[in-house]
C-alpha cells in the first residue's frame, strides 16, 4: 500500500474505534461514586486473613493464580530474550575496554548502592504491610546493582553479576512459587491455598503464605531484571558481527 | 478430581523452571527427555480430567469457594470443550518435542533446556487459557501463550525474515491483547465482576444493550480474532508461519490459532449471549461476513503460493474461516461439527508441516518450483503427504471429512458450496505441491510475478542438511495422521466428542450417505484441480486481480495495524443494528 492509502485506511479504522470508545465512556459509571462491590469484598477478605496491604492480599492470596501467570510471563520473556539475543555462529565476543569515571559520579554511585539495595529489600519484605511488594522491590534491587556500572565500569559489574547464576535464580524463584502453590494442595485444601497460620495483624509475619509468595516474586523480579538488563548491553557492547577485526 | 485443574497448568510451568534452573549442567539428551516427560505427564492429566468432565468440574483456586454466591477468587472450569482443547494442545506439544529431538542446529550455548522450556511454557499458557473461567485470568494466560509464541517464532535469529515475522506477530497480537484488556476494563466498570458467568449475569441485569456493551464486545472479539487470524486481522499469520521453526509451526497452526476461535465461542456463550446483551443474530451477522471473507481470501492466496510453508499457512487461514462460520451459526450440530473438524485438522495440518520440515532440512528449500521432482526418493514422506492432503480435502473416513460434512449439513445453502469449494481449493494446492515435488509431474514452472515470495535459499533448521531422514521426523506425522483418521473412523469416538461438546444435543454424528458424498465431492474436486494445475498451467495461471490482493500482504506492520482498526470498526458496525433496535 502507498503511504496515502495506508493513512486513509488508518483514518477510517481509527475514527471508528475512537467513536466507539467515546460512546462507551459516556456509559461508564460516574467517577467517585460510593458503590464498590468488588472493593468491599476484597477488603473484607484481606482483613479476615490478617493482611494489612489489601493489594498484596489480592496479588498473593485471592488472585494468586493470576500472579502465577504473570510471573510466568516475566519468566518467559527473560527466557525468550536469552534465546533471541544469543551469540550466533556469525558473531563473536569482544572484551569491553575499561573507561575512566568522573570522581563525583564514582563516589555518589558507591554511597548510594548499598542504600538502594537495602531499600529494595525493605520494599520486598514489607509487601504484605505497606505499598510495594515483590515485583516493585525486585526491580529496585536489580537496578541498584547497576549503579556499579556507573560508578566503576562494565567489568566490575560483570564480576558481581554472573548472568548464569541469576538465570538459575530466576528459575528457582519461579519454581518456589509453584512448589508453595502445590504445597497448598497437600497441606491445605487446594492449590495455592493459604495454609499457614495468619499471624498477628500488621506484623512482618502476618498473612500466612502471602509473605513467602511475595518473597519468591521479589527474587524472581530481581533476577529477571538483572538478566534482561545484562542481555541488551551485552548485545551492544560485547557481541560483534563477523569474524572480528 | 476438580482439585487437579490448576495442576494442569502448574506441571508444565514447573517443568520449564526445572529445565532452566538445571539447564547449564544438563546434557542435551537429558534436557529433551525431561521436556518430553513433563509435556506427556500434562497430556495424560488433561485426558484423565477430560474423561471425568461430566458433570463439569469447577475449582476455586486457593479454596476461595463462594460464600453466599460471592467470591473474590479465580474459578477454573473443566468442561468438555476446554479440557479437549487442553488435551489437543498437550498432545501436539509432545508431538512437536518428539519431532524436534536433536533437531536444532545451535542450541544456545549452555542453554540446552531453553527450547523445551519455552515449549512447556507455551503448553502451560494454552492449558491455562482453555480452562479459565475468569475473564482476567483468561487474558493472563492468553498473554503467556502469545509471549512465548513470539520468542519461539523468532528462534532462528540469524535470519532477518525470522525477526521480521516474529515482530509483526508480536506487534499485532500485543495490540489485540490491549484491545481485550480495554474490553475487560469496560465490562468490569459495568458489572464489578471478573468471573465469566457473573459478568454475563451482570450485563443481563443492567438491561438493554448500549454503546458500552457494543464497544466491549468489539474490543474483546478483536483480540481473539487477531489470534484466530480472521480477515482483516490475519496478516501476521503467513509472515510468522513461514519463518517459525517447523516444530513451532506445528503448534501455531495445529492448536494456537484454533484457541482464538475457541475463545470467541466460549466468551460469547458465557458473557454476551444474554437476552439483553448481544443477540445471537448480531453475532452471526458480525462473524459471518468476516469468516466468509477469511475463507475466500485464505483459499485464493493459498492457491497462488509457491513457498510451501506460506501455502500451508494460508490454508490454515481458509480453514479458520470455515471454523468461524460454524461458531457463528450457534447450533449444537455446528458446534459438534467444528469440534470434530478442529480435532482432525490439528492432526493433518501438523503432519503436513512436519513433512514440509523434512523437505526443508533435506533440500534447503521449501519452494514448489525449485523442488520440482527432487524429492522422488522420499517415498514414505510422499505417501504421508498425499494422504494428509486428501484428508484435508475431506476424504472419508478421516476426522476432517466427518466434521466438515456435519458442519456443511448444518449451515446449508450457499455456505455448503463455499465449504466444498474452499476445502477443494486448499487441498488442491497442497496436492499440486505434492505431485510436483515428490513425483516430478508436469513441466517445471517458470518464475511467476516479481512480488511472489519464493522459498529458495532457506536455511535448514537442523545441524547440517540431512542425508537421511531421522525416524522421529517421519514417525511423528504418521502417528498424527493415524490419530486424525481415528477421529472419524473409530465408531463411537465422534459421538463421544459430541457428548462432550453439546451434551449429545445433536443426535447423529456418524457417516451417512449424504456425508460420504460431500466428502468425496470435495476430494474429487481437489484431485481435479491439482491435475489441471500440473498438466495445463495456463488456465489456472495467476489472474491480474491477484496482484493487489498479494500486495496487501506487504510485510509493513503499519498496514497490518491499519487493517486491524478497520476490522474492529467493521465488527461493531455489523452488530450495531440489533443494538439500535434493542
UniProtKB/TrEMBL annotation, chain A:
This is Cation:proton antiporter. Residues 106-220 form the Na+/H+ antiporter MnhB subunit-related protein domain. Keywords: Cell membrane, Membrane, Transmembrane, Transmembrane helix. It comes from the Bacteria. PROSITE patterns: PROKAR_LIPOPROTEIN. PANTHER family: NA(+)/H(+) ANTIPORTER SUBUNIT B, NA(+)_H(+) ANTIPORTER SUBUNIT B. It is found in: Cell membrane. Belongs to the CPA3 antiporters (TC 2.A.63) subunit B family. It is a multi-pass membrane protein. Pfam families: MnhB. InterPro entries: CPA3_antiporter_subunitB, MnhB. One of its GO terms (cellular component) is plasma membrane. It comes from Streptomyces olivochromogenes. The chain crosses the membrane at residues 67-85, 105-125, 131-150, 171-192, 212-232.
From TrEMBL, chain B:
GO terms for biological process: ATP synthesis coupled electron transport. It is found in: Cell membrane; Membrane. Keywords: Cell membrane, Membrane, Oxidoreductase, Transmembrane, Transmembrane helix. It holds the Pfam family Proton_antipo_M. The keyword Oxidoreductase applies. The keyword Disulfide bond does not apply. One of its GO terms (cellular component) is plasma membrane. GO terms for molecular function: NADH dehydrogenase (ubiquinone) activity; oxidoreductase activity. It is an enzyme of class 1 (oxidoreductase). Residues 132-421 form the NADH:quinone oxidoreductase/Mrp antiporter transmembrane domain. It is a multi-pass membrane protein. Its EC number is 1.6.5.11. The chain crosses the membrane at residues 6-22, 34-54, 74-101, 113-132, 138-154, 166-191, 211-230, 242-265, 285-304, 311-332, 338-360, 381-403, 415-434, 473-496, 516-536, 557-576. InterPro entries: CPA3_Na-H_Antiporter_D, NADH_UbQ_OxRdtase, ND/Mrp_TM. Belongs to the CPA3 antiporters (TC 2.A.63) subunit D family. This is NADH dehydrogenase.
Amino acid at each position: 500500500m502507498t503511504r496515502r492509502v495506508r493513512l486513509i485506511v488508518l483514518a477510517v479504522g481509527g475514527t471508528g474505534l475512537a467513536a466507539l470508545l467515546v460512546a462507551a465512556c459516556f456509559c461508564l459509571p460516574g467517577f467517585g461514586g460510593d458503590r464498590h462491590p468488588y472493593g468491599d469484598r476484597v477488603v473484607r477478605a484481606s482483613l479476615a486473613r490478617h493482611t494489612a496491604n489489601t493489594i498484596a492480599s489480592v496479588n498473593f492470596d485471592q488472585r494468586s493464580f493470576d500472579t502465577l501467570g504473570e510471573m510466568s510471563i516475566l519468566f518467559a520473556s527473560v527466557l525468550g530474550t536469552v534465546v533471541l539475543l544469543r551469540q550466533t555462529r556469525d558473531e563473536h565476543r569482544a572484551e569491553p575496554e575499561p573507561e575512566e569515571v568522573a570522581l563525583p559520579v564514582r563516589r555518589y554511585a558507591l554511597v548510594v548502592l548499598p542504600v538502594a539495595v537495602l531499600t529494595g529489600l525493605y520494599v520486598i519484605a514489607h509487601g504484605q504491610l505497606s505499598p510495594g511488594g515483590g515485583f516493585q522491590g525486585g526491580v529496585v534491587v536489580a537496578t541498584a546493582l547497576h549503579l556499579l556500572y556507573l560508578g566503576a565500569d562494565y567489568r566490575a559489574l560483570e564480576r558481581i553479576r554472573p548472568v548464569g547464576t541469576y538465570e538459575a535464580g530466576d528459575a528457582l524463584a519461579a519454581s518456589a512459587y509453584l512448589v508453595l502453590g502445590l504445597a497448598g494442595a497437600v497441606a491445605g485444601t487446594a492449590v495455592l491455598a493459604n495454609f499457614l497460620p495468619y499471624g498477628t495483624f500488621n506484623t512482618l509475619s502476618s498473612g500466612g503464605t502471602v509473605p513467602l509468595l511475595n518473597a519468591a516474586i521479589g527474587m524472581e523480579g530481581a533476577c529477571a531484571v538483572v538478566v534482561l538488563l545484562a542481555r541488551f548491553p551485552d548485545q551492544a557492547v560485547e557481541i560483534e558481527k563477523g569474524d572480528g577485526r | 478430581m476438580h482439585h487437579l485443574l490448576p495442576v494442569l497448568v502448574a506441571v508444565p510451568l514447573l517443568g520449564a523452571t526445572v529445565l532452566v534452573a538445571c539447564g547449564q549442567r544438563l546434557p542435551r539428551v537429558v534436557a529433551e527427555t525431561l521436556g518430553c516427560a513433563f509435556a506427556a505427564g500434562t497430556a495424560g492429566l488433561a485426558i484423565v480430567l477430560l474423561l471425568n468432565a461430566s458433570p463439569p468440574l469447577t475449582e476455586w483456586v486457593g479454596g476461595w469457594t463462594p460464600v453466599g454466591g460471592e467470591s473474590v477468587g479465580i474459578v477454573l472450569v473443566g468442561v468438555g470443550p476446554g479440557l479437549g482443547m487442553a488435551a489437543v494442545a498437550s498432545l501436539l506439544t509432545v508431538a512437536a518435542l518428539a519431532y524436534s529431538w536433536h533437531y536444532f542446529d545451535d542450541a544456545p550455548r549452555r542453554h540446552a533446556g531453553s527450547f523445551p522450556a519455552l515449549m512447556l511454557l507455551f503448553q502451560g499458557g494454552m492449558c491455562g487459557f482453555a480452562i479459565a473461567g475468569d475473564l482476567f485470568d483468561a487474558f493472563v494466560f492468553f498473554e503467556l501463550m502469545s509471549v512465548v509464541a513470539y520468542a519461539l517464532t523468532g528462534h532462528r535469529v540469524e535470519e532477518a525474515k525470522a525477526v521480521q515475522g516474529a515482530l509483526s506477530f508480536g506487534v499485532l497480537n500485543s495490540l489485540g491483547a490491549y484491545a481485550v484488556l480495554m474490553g475487560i476494563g469496560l465490562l468490569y466498570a459495568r458489572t464489578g465482576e471478573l468471573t465469566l458467568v457473573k459478568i454475563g449475569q451482570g450485563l443481563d441485569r443492567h438491561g438493554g444493550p448500549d454503546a458500552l456493551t457494543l464497544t466491549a464486545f468489539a474490543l474483546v472479539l478483536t483480540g481473539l480474532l487477531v489470534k484466530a487470524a480472521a480477515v482483516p486481522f490475519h496478516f501476521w499469520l503467513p509472515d510468522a508461519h513461514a519463518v517459525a521453526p517447523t516444530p513451532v509451526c506445528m503448534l501455531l497452526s495445529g492448536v494456537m490459532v484454533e484457541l482464538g476461535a475457541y475463545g470467541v465461542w466460549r466468551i460469547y456463550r458465557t458473557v454476551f449471549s444474554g437476552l439483553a446483551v448481544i443477540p445471537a443474530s448480531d453475532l452471526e451477522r458480525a462473524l459471518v461476513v468476516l469468516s466468509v471473507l477469511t475463507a475466500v481470501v485464505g483459499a485464493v492466496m493459498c492457491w497462488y503460493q509457491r513457498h510451501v510453508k506460506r501455502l500451508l499457512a494460508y490454508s490454515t487461514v481458509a480453514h479458520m474461516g470455515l471454523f468461524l462460520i460454524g461458531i457463528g451459526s450457534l447450533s449444537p450440530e455446528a458446534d459438534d461439527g467444528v469440534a470434530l473438524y478442529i480435532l482432525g485438522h490439528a492432526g493433518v495440518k501438523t503432519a503436513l508441516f512436519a513433512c514440509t520440515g523434512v523437505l526443508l532440512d533435506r533440500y534447503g528449500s521449501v519452494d514448489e518450483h525449485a523442488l520440482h521432482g527432487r524429492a522422488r526418493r522420499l517415498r514414505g514422506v510422499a505417501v504421508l503427504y498425499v494422504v494428509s492432503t486428501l484428508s484435508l480435502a475431506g476424504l472419508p473416513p478421516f476426522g476432517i471429512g466427518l466434521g466438515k460434512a456435519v458442519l456443511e449439513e448444518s449451515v446449508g445453502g450457499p455456505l455448503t458450496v463455499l465449504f466444498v469449494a474452499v476445502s477443494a481449493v486448499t487441498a488442491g494446492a497442497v496436492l499440486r505441491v505434492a505431485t510436483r515435488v515428490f513425483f516430478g509431474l508436469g513441466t517445471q514452472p517458470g518464475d511467476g510475478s516479481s512480488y511472489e515470495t519464493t522459498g529458495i535459499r532457506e536455511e535448514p533448521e537442523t545441524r547440517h542438511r540431512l542425508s537421511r531422514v531421522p525416524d522421529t521426523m517421519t514417525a511423528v506425522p504418521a502417528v498424527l495422521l493415524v490419530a486424525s483418521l481415528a477421529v472419524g473412523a473409530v465408531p463411537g469416538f465422534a459421538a463421544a466428542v459430541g457428548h462432550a461438546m453439546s451434551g449429545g444435543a445433536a443426535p447423529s454424528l456418524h457417516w451417512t450417505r449424504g456425508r460420504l458424498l460431500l466428502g468425496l465431492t470435495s476430494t474429487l474436486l481437489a484431485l481435479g484441480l491439482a491435475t489441471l494445475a500440473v498438466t495445463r498451467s495456463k488456465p489456472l495461471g495467476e489472474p491480474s486481480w491477484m496482484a493487489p490482493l498479494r500486495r496487501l500482504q506487504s510485510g509493513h506492520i503499519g498496514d497490518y495495524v491499519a487493517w486491524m482498526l478497520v476490522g474492529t470498526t467493521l465488527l461493531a458496525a455489523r452488530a450495531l443494528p440489533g443494538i439500535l433496535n434493542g
